[in-house]
């Protein structure tokens, strides 16, 4: 079997093969773009070929940036379009492509990789762990009133009360540049968020509001008239569905939520892709008016260089841990002393006794601060060698904000 990068001439073969792997047919091109695969970068796509040259597998990555806790932006190849023809499954094709892909990422100097898992049982064996989560919040319109905030606004507590900005409603076709600019501003401050390269917006290659699907956009502007948030929504059979809400702070999110919750002639409002523990449910006058559902994993993270990854993200408490990390897929093992002082981390090999023993996939899960190490200890994934090891790890890995990813790829 041969695994090789594609060329521009291979694009049709690549697209046909990945669709056949999932038992689907490529979409018919439409005016305005909107084909999910049109944003693929051919030099980052792989084809698996049999000895006689027949394509049987595909894999690709997008060149994204990931925002880490503390606001550092790092290259993050986003794995996508992974498929093997049904006739060639369980023959090592997927494993070979994953090894090839990780080797390419390392060769480019990338120290982590990310993906969205079509099935949760597939990618753990390749070293990926779920790192961000998302859920759906449904609010019945007749119970949608927001309570007056009780906490006094201070410099340390972002305002979520009365908003002095304004909201306009525009059709999706009139806000291309604004959507791109506001999303980029948001993702640079949100741990776990991925960039949306300009080509995605230009080609409409994604889900709403990137795609050409008809949507209305509620645009929030600050007191100077500068857009600082938006909500993309549609209405069908009495349900107002919000694809995504982008806001530079909680006050803007609250203003957009108040707007869609006050929309006439709808029976319920569904907010898709709300971060776990988001304050919106607590802001409802009737707490039970917000029904949480669709709780699921979203972004999975795989570390390729543990010391570099740990010293690049931001840290918010001082501490020390010895981590014994196994990487079965790549056949690697390392024991590292992680020391954090005044927000700066040092990570070096050590022969000290470990505080925690864990798989690289579990380290990927806790890396962004969205999964507590103690949860994985209780689940039997991580072994704690000292009683205080898990609480210390929880405090150390906790992020400045709950990591969240909205981007679909």
Automatic annotation (TrEMBL):
Signal sequence region: none
Domain of life: Bacteria
TM segment ranges: none
Residues of the N-acetyltransferase domain: 1-152
Family stated for the protein in its record: Belongs to the acetyltransferase Eis family.
Residues binding acetyl-CoA, per UniProt: 82-84, 90-95, 118-119
Cross-referenced SUPFAM superfamilies: Acyl-CoA N-acyltransferases (Nat), SCP-like
Residues the record marks as active site: 123, 409
Protein name, per record: GNAT family N-acetyltransferase
Sorted UniProt keywords: Acyltransferase, Transferase
PROSITE patterns linked: GNAT (PS51186)
């Amino acid at each position: 079997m041969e695994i090789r990068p594609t060329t521009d001439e291979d694009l049709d073969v690549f697209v046909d093969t990945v669709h056949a792997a999932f038992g689907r047919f490529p979409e018919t091109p439409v005016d305005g773009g909107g084909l999910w695969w049109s944003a693929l970068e051919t030099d980052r796509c792989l084809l698996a070929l049999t000895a006689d040259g027949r394509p049987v597998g595909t894999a690709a990555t997008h060149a994204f940036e990931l925002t880490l806790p503390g606001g550092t932006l790092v290259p993050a190849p986003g794995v996508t379009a992974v498929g093997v023809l049904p006739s060639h499954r369980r023959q090592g094709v997927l494993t070979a492509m994953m090894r090839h892909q990780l080797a390419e990422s390392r060769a480019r100097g990338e120290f982590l990789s990310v993906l969205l898992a079509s099935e949760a049982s597939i990618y753990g064996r390749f070293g990926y762990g779920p790192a961000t989560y998302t859920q759906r919040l449904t609010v019945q319109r007749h119970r949608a009133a927001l309570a007056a905030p009780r906490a006094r606004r201070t410099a340390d507590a972002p305002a979520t009360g009365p908003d002095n900005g304004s909201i306009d409603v525009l059709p999706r076709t009139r806000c291309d540049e604004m959507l791109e600019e506001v999303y980029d501003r948001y993702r640079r401050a949100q741990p776990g968020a991925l960039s949306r390269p300009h080509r995605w917006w230009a080609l409409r290659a994604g889900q709403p509001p990137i795609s050409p699907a008809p949507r209305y956009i509620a645009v929030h502007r600050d007191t100077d008239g500068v857009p600082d948030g938006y909500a993309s929504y549609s209405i069908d059979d009495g349900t107002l569905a919000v694809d995504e809400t982008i806001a530079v702070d909680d006050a803007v999110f609250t203003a957009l939520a108040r707007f869609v919750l006050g929309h006439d002639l709808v029976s319920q409002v569904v907010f898709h892709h709300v971060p776990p523990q988001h304050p919106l449910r607590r802001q409802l006058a009737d707490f039970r008016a917000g029904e949480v559902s669709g709780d699921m994993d979203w972004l999975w993270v795989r570390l390729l260089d543990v010391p570099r990854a740990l010293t690049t993200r931001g840290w918010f408490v001082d501490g020390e841990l010895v981590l014994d990390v196994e990487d079965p897929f790549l056949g690697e093992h390392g024991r590292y002393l992680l020391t954090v002082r005044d927000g700066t981390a040092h990570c070096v090999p050590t022969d000290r006794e470990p505080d925690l023993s864990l798989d690289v996939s579990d380290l990927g899960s806790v890396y962004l601060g969205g999964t507590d190490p103690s949860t994985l200890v209780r689940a039997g994934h991580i072994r704690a060698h000292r009683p205080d090891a898990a609480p210390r790890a929880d405090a150390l890995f906790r992020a400045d904000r709950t990591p969240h990813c909205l981007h679909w790829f």
